[in-house]
């Protein structure tokens, strides 16, 4: 499938006389293929919003290459802007205008037919409240309006930054369904979110960013498989045989963690090898299950942002690719 | 073109634009009504009444002079002490004022002479609309920045300078349309005031041309004020930046400088104050006078030192202010990261 969005070596550096230099984006790469729903994940301060703003021409990069729909941006942004719908961070609208006025003015500025206004209001569920001022809207309604504004152009690439923010559970489900429908209609969706379960449900592929660099990317299944660590849970018919089994597996070079009623193995490429090895020792397996990981655990592992009891992690304390892989690696925060 | 039309729509839809415009028009209306009710037409009845008042005052003064002379003579005959200097040495020196020294025109009611007074009304009109233009201009772009509307717009139209200049063009179009329409009503209103409560005599083609040129200069001043307000708010990304800047300029730059220069004994302090140049622009020339200096004339009179400030001087200041503010706003718009 052709790429709708390509980013190579994107760099953005902020310089401050007091706080030194901070690399918000440090050679970031990304690839989104046509028709995909692509998840864009990263801890707070990792560079997600900076990437999106840079892509949309709101921030000037210090280096790197960005291509949208085959055209290099920001140079070709005026030409491709009509095909890219976007909401960036929290929705912001003029509070005294109604939703219909807000969309109508945007449609006018973007030379979009005015009948699209009612179509997108219907699509996001704001039809009956369209005549009310935006200042009377809840956060979730503003979020819907923001999505409506992004859909107004009927874009080929839809960029949604935290679209589920402020939505109730029903709204989240509607947003998920809408995103799926849009992708099914051929629209490519780039979805930035902290709701990792949602991303796992909706997205075909993901990119994970930490301290301005990509730490993982690819189809969701592959990313999960890559980071499952070859974990396997083993139970035997007789729990009393567990020490013998642990000994045999350790001698075969498998990392074993003994639990009261089972063994946890790590680094196992082929679970069948475990079954054969134990059978040769006269030990019979009652359960042999690969340990599955979810996107949240992969995310926390890759970005090193899991909570540690007694510690208060700071926003810039996460993993940087190419560094020592430890929290707080120099180069991402202020003062480098 | 669609962006321009959209920005015109946005300008018209904004609540602040509507309220500020309405307030400005109400103030203009109040001035017009006030002038109407404080003036009246001078006819034979008013002339006669004024003449009666002048005659009466003259008679009172004659009577008073006679009383004083009589008192003086009585005091002199009684040999009273003249040390207080109440009376002159010769009581005959106390004379009534000459006939005609009390003029009837002093007692005429206020009347609106269109030819003589309308130019000042154009200055008033310009001052009020320049203020409206400044705050509406500042709010038009300042609220867009602070509400996030500008960022939304740039996602649709990434050419930043085009967006900013189109917004400015829409603002100025609206403002010029308002000014021209209000000026027409203002002129018609004062013509009516002149007709009903004064005079519209001596209005030659040249007089109308002079008013038109003053009005044109007023329009330029209104446009410059709105542009500077717009540019300052865009620079600071908030309406308050323009309003705060203006208040700061008035408090520090005008009152402060005025007091400082006064303490330093500087000549022509008004030459350092912005309203002086606004007036010079509108009136074509103003003459500042320094009463501390004495320029002796051929006839021995002592005349104050003067300094002429013309509309050309004011135009340099306006142009520099406009270019500096708008230039800075455009450069910043082009370069800044919008976060």
- Number of discrete domains of chain A: 2
What structural class do helix, strand and pairing data of chain B support?
A: mainly alpha
| Order of the strands making up the biggest sheet of chain A | 6-7-8-3-9-10
Q: In the CATH hierarchy, what is the architecture of the largest domain in chain A at level 2?
A: 3-Layer(aba) Sandwich
Q: Unreliable stretches of chain A, pLDDT < 50, 5 or more residues?
A: 323-336
Strand order of the largest sheet of chain B: 1-2
The structural class of chain A is: alpha/beta
Gross geometry of chain B: elongated
Describe the structure.
The complex is a heterodimer of chains A (336) and B (339). Chain A has 336 residues and is an alpha/beta fold. Chain A folds into 2 domains: 3-225, 3-Layer(aba) Sandwich (Rossmann fold), CATH 3.40.50.300; 229-290, Alpha-Beta Plaits, CATH 3.30.70. Chain A has helices at residues 48-55, 77-80, 99-109, 115-123, 139-151, 169-184, 196-202, 220-226, 242-251, 271-280, 295-303, and strands at residues 3-16, 20-33, 37-41, 63-68, 71-73, 84-87, 157-161, 188-192, 205-210, 213-219, 232-236, 255-258, 263-266, 285-290. In chain A, strand 7, helix 6 (169-184) and strand 8 form a beta-alpha-beta unit. In chain A, helix 3 (99-109) crosses helix 4 (115-123) and helix 4 packs across helix 5 (139-151). Chain A is elongated, with a radius of gyration of 24 Å. The relative contact order of chain A is 0.14. Chain B is mostly helical and 339 residues long. Chain B folds into 2 domains: 2-40 and 112-335, no CATH class; 44-107. Chain B is 71% helix and 7% strand. Chain B has 10 helices and 4 strands; from the N terminus they run αααβαααβαααββα. In chain B, the strands form 2 sheets. A two-stranded parallel sheet of chain B has the order 1-2. In chain B, strands 3-4 form a two-stranded antiparallel sheet. In chain B, helix 2 packs parallel to helix 6 (160-197) and helix 9 packs across helix 10 (311-335). Chain B is elongated. Chain B starts with a helix and ends with a helix. The mean pLDDT of chain B is 90. Classes of the chains: A alpha/beta (336), B mainly alpha (339). Chains A and B meet through helix 3 of A and helix 1, helix 4 and helix 5 of B.
